[in-house]
């Protein structure tokens, strides 16, 4: 950032949370690329925050899997291998399908999931890929939390950072925003109808499609 550039604007919340959310969004959308260094000095300069705040944000990003750091090295944006992608979708599918099955038993879809779907629909209407990234992860995270299993929710949280990396990847972004929004709407409809078989089938198809897109883009890079 040069002297003529203003500090990046962040939303009003706790300062650490705001910087963390902004960095997470920039990584997820590819503004900060895989393998790129994210140092305390960089965060201090770009956000005009104190070094302890920058350090706390980086540590949280490492904890989510968005950043990785070897001993005594600067943190860098995680670079997923082909095997990482396959393993991630294996784990993600197991967690989310189990959560969807439990949620379909009650049909008690949480308000946060409905709000995420409205945001997805809006993103589809305006071809808003940034909005898609935010709403996509909110939809799936809300679904898992609504399953009522704290352990499923914790396991899902552990891979959320890597999920964001795939959502923001070139492969995932090759899909039309409106089509992705429609896939989520179909899953939501089945959950609300308490149709667990259809919910599972639609969720698996959705995740398989995303897996193929991400994997295909990786293989052509």
How are helices and strands ordered from N to C? Answer: HHHEEHHHHHHH
CATH topology of the largest domain: Four Helix Bundle (Hemerythrin (Met), subunit A)
CATH architectural name of the largest domain: Up-down Bundle
> From the alpha-carbon coordinates, what is the Rg to the nearest angstrom?
18 Å
- CATH superfamily assignment of the largest domain? GntR ligand-binding domain-like
CATH level 1 name of the largest domain: Mainly Alpha
Strands of the largest sheet, in order across it? 1-2
Shape: globular
Estimated share of beta-strand residues:
under 5%
Estimate the helix proportion, in percent: over 70%
Q: Counting H and I runs of at least 4 residues, what is the number of helices?
A: 10
Structural class: mainly alpha
- Uncertain segments of ≥5 residues (pLDDT<50)? none
* Mean pLDDT value: 91
Which tags fit this structure?
GntR_C; 10 helices; 221 residues; two-stranded antiparallel ribbon; 71% helix; mainly alpha; Four Helix Bundle (Hemerythrin (Met), subunit A); DNA-binding transcription factor activity; 2 domains
